[in-house]
């Protein structure tokens, strides 16, 4: 049954993307940028609905009250493609730092350009950081919310964290709050996997880390609070009535936390 539901959801997911991009393209490109956000946010909401109805996975988001007004940095855990869009409906005017190759994709790249995202060349690390800081400053000055994945790439649930210094550098440069987000989406939408598992995708938006810390202290705090919350969510899922299959990294982490699966 999981295979069939996964096949149906994956098909619906990509059809949803293609159909919405075609149908709503005129409205999207003719509307002012802030008004045009209704299209990507509606796409995100519809994906969450499709995953709930077809695959049986429903998000449970705690801590929405911790999202500040105005500009801030949003720093979600990165476990899955799911977390690239799931928080979009709750963020007023987000801007993503992304690899420039995405802007070369026909139509999709034009959608990105419309929203004034920050493309960087990952192959040139020094230039990429300068471009990221420059674009981040412009976004914050425009009262937007900067989306940064502190580990830079997707990591399996329970895997040892590898937070990169780039988020600390940008934190020090911008002087705005950083909102950590913990979740366990990788258990239900695993990276590089076809299967989509049913259950409750637990997410926790944590209290903002205020500006003013030195960069090293900030990075340590960001990692500590995010990983502690991820551990709690992992344990809650493992102890639920019908947990998804646990990857080896999650099994090992649960053992370290004193939980047998």
TrEMBL record:
<keyword id="KW-0012">Acyltransferase</keyword>
<keyword id="KW-0472">Membrane</keyword>
<dbReference type="InterPro" id="IPR002123">
    <property type="entry name" value="Plipid/glycerol_acylTrfase"/>
</dbReference>
<feature type="domain" description="Phospholipid/glycerol acyltransferase">
    <location>
        <begin position="72"/>
        <end position="186"/>
    </location>
</feature>
<keyword id="KW-0812">Transmembrane</keyword>
<feature type="transmembrane region" description="Helical">
    <location>
        <begin position="12"/>
        <end position="31"/>
    </location>
</feature>
<keyword id="KW-1133">Transmembrane helix</keyword>
<dbReference type="GO" id="GO:0003841">
    <property type="term" value="F:1-acylglycerol-3-phosphate O-acyltransferase activity"/>
</dbReference>
<dbReference type="Pfam" id="PF01553">
    <property type="entry name" value="Acyltransferase"/>
</dbReference>
<protein>
    <submittedName>
        <fullName>1-acyl-sn-glycerol-3-phosphate acyltransferase</fullName>
    </submittedName>
</protein>
<comment type="pathway">
    <text>Lipid metabolism.</text>
</comment>
<keyword id="KW-0808">Transferase</keyword>
<dbReference type="GO" id="GO:0006654">
    <property type="term" value="P:phosphatidic acid biosynthetic process"/>
</dbReference>
């Amino acid at each position: 049954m999981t295979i069939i539901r996964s096949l149906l959801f994956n098909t619906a997911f990509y059809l949803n993307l293609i159909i919405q991009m075609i149908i709503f393209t005129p409205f999207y490109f003719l509307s002012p940028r802030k008004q045009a956000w209704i299209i990507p946010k509606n796409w995100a909401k519809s994906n969450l609905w499709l995953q709930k109805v077809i695959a049986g996975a429903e998000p449970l988001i705690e801590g929405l009250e911790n999202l500040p007004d105005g500009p801030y940095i949003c720093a979600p855990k990165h476990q899955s493609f799911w977390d690239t869009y799931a928080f979009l409906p709750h963020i007023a005017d987000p801007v993503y730092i992304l690899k420039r190759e995405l802007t070369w994709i026909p139509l999709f790249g034009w959608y990105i350009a419309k929203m004034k995202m920050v493309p960087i060349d990952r192959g040139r690390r020094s230039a990429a950081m300068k471009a990221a800081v420059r674009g981040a400053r412009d976004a914050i000055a425009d009262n937007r919310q900067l989306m940064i994945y502190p580990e830079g790439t997707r990591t399996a649930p329970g895997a040892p964290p590898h937070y990169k210094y780039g988020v600390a550098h940008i934190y020090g440069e911008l002087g705005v709050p950083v909102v950590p987000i913990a979740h366990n989406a990788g258990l239900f939408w695993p990276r590089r996997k076809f299967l989509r598992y049913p259950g409750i995708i637990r997410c926790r938006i944590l209290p903002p880390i205020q500006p003013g810390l030195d960069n090293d202290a900030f990075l340590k705090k960001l990692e500590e609070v995010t990983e502690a919350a991820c551990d709690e969510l992992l344990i809650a899922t493992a102890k639920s009535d019908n947990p998804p299959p646990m990857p080896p990294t999650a099994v090992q982490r649960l053992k370290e936390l004193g939980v047998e699966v």
